[in-house]
Amino acid sequence: MADDGMLLNFDLGSGPVKPQVKFKGGNWRDRKQAQKSARLASSGPEAPRPTRDEDDQRSSKRQRTDNDGFNSGFDYKPSARYGPRDRSYGGDGPTTQHRNQGSDLKRTGGQVISRLFSFNPAQKTELEEEKETEWTAPEATNAPLSDSFASLTISSRLVEELKKLNLERPTAIQKKVIPHMLSNSADAFVQAETGSGKTYSYLLPVLHRILLLSERGGAQIHRDSGVFAIIVSPTRELAKQTHAVLEQLIRPFPWLVSTAITGGESKKAEKARIRKGVNFLVATPGRLADHIDNTKALSLSTVRWLILDEGDRLMDLGFEDDLKKAIDALKRIDLTDKLPDGTSLKSLPDRRVTVLCSATMKMNVQKLGEMSLADATFLAAEKDINDNDNDGDEKAMKAPAQLHQSYTITPAKLRLVTLISYLKSTFSRRGRTMKAIVFISCADSVDFHYELLRDPMKLEAPASGSKDAESISKTVSKAGYITSPASPEVILHRMHGSLSQPVRTATIKAFSECKLPSLLITTDVSSRGLDIPSVDLVIEYDPAFSFDDHIHRVGRTARAGRPGDALLFLLPGTEEGYIKLLKASTPPTPQPYDSILQKGMMTKLEFPVETSAAIIDGQTYHDKAETLQLHIEQRLLGENKTLELARNGFKSHIRAYATHIKEERSHFDISELHLGHTAKSYGLREAPGGIGAGVERKTKKRPFKSGGRGSGRSSGKDSGKDSGKDLSRDTGDDDREQPRSDRPPRDVIKMKSMMLMNSTADEFNIG
């Protein structure tokens, strides 16, 4: 072959030639790691690190580390701190880089460390009030007055029974309503703040006028005399509580009988009780309408009083049609003046009296008033509550003055550790039994937090009656994480509308009667009307879906003149505008999350489940908080059940966030939510998918676009699909036992769902 004149010159250098090693076997990650380690070993210790562009091309789920996980020794080091950063998720920077991962992770010596204090959005509100003196409670606005019940000219036997219940003086609303209902037969609209005793204000005059028929020890009146009063409550819990109060009052009068008819109970047993005879009927709207249609033994000719309790809630939950059916049925039936045995009913009102109780004057309440009231008298605890200065403002109601409200602006990543720290410091108080309620937006989130905070090593529930022991076996447990030397045992309870009615009733009873420090984790199903004794603290971990719901939530404490505390968690950014609404009710006190963490981390942290994360002596409270978060994340990775609960809770939480009422949606803008940071508050290292197309589109950040609220309607539509699904379950009407042909058509269910979306409630805040 002829020489073509080409000369090849290879410069091999002076060193030995290193053969190129080809790695085979294993998966591609292992081969890539082996190639990298071989390259680093050949280049020596001074090898340059890869450029930023190479880092950006790597998978967001596999973060680059200094030693790439090859150092198997465990050496926990606190993560670096960064100052607060403005919430500009659309630009380039660490926040964008970590958005999909859901957290800022650092791996030191093979150990992943959760970085809670970096890449958090900047807080807009300056806490200038932090250095003020300690809050002092003003004079209580719902406390009993100096007058006694005897001055209201009610039956002496009722006064004696009230003394046994430690009730000797009436409240302001009772002093107005009781004389009115005793002296005339006019309809009444009763408006008063939460915890002011509206239940006794209408029960006492009704009982007094019925007792006038029994002048000889009950010879004339008995259970067969007919139904004299019907009390309608929006939820099963409130109906059962009203029935319990009524049972206490009629205990000395065995010839009077009351019963409660609610969804979730046996309708056959309710029919049997009605057939035997009752004088007082406490009912939820759907079950009452059902019995009016289908129970022939229910006679309405003797009914003199129709009490509509919590009128705003009755309308918010879509009971307008059921209420209209009951009201029309009463209007169609003529009153009877005598009983079949000849007993005269002249001491009773000569017409049916309707009493509408509501804390607000919203438009739907006015509609209910037009439907049920005729020439009604307005009765309020304060003269200025009906002033025209508000120009129709629906938020005239306020929290009790002696209620100490506070708020904390906490970044999403720090919410869970801050909640645990606050509960731990709360139950560190000595010398008194402590009851606290934590309100959460949805049932799935309640289930997760209950499972996380309970101690899995102590499965036995506290001692209770054999009747309720089985019902509360999965809703009452001993708590972990939040115990302290002052409270070595804290009893944990969970409550939401997806639980069966016997379980809900038994759980509320167990929480009310618990003598140890106890905590109830619940949805808004427990926010209305429930009078649970000795509740000292209410925590709104998720803000209420409307300001009215917020007032009712915090109203579970500071009742009947007693003091109470309430803490609201808010996120930095648009949620800080909600503080203006709080100031319109009662001036709130700010609590920096740093101070909450510092107080909570002062005592020794004890983990009920063992993981590789451990507290080291000398750590700052920042490091302890990161260790607690790391422990929770590691625990979830080892517990499939808890991990699934966390994922479901996160998804439901995001959907629920889209259902705030229209007037307040500017403060709770779902497009401002950082899904990854929110996932950290559920112990997740990345945000799971499957939330819903509309919600996921809304939460994708749009840089440099100011109108981020444009898609609020679409996400509400997604949530509306779910709201119709559980509409009856949480309002006491899931057990109607109707034939398939008699069930409401699909368009009616859709209408109710849209009604909930446009007002205050849906599946998330009623269950």
From TrEMBL:
InterPro entries: DEAD/DEAH_box_helicase_dom, Helicase_ATP-bd, Helicase_C-like, P-loop_NTPase, RNA_helicase_DEAD_Q_motif, SPB4-like_CTE
Limits of the Helicase ATP-binding domain: 179-379
EC number(s) from the headed UniProt entry: 3.6.4.13
SMART domains in the cross-refs: DEXDc, DUF4217, HELICc
Keyword Nucleotide-binding: yes
Pfam families (alphabetical): CTE_SPB4, DEAD, Helicase_C
PROSITE patterns referenced in this protein's UniProt entry, alphabetically: HELICASE_ATP_BIND_1, HELICASE_CTER, Q_MOTIF
Protein name: ATP-dependent RNA helicase
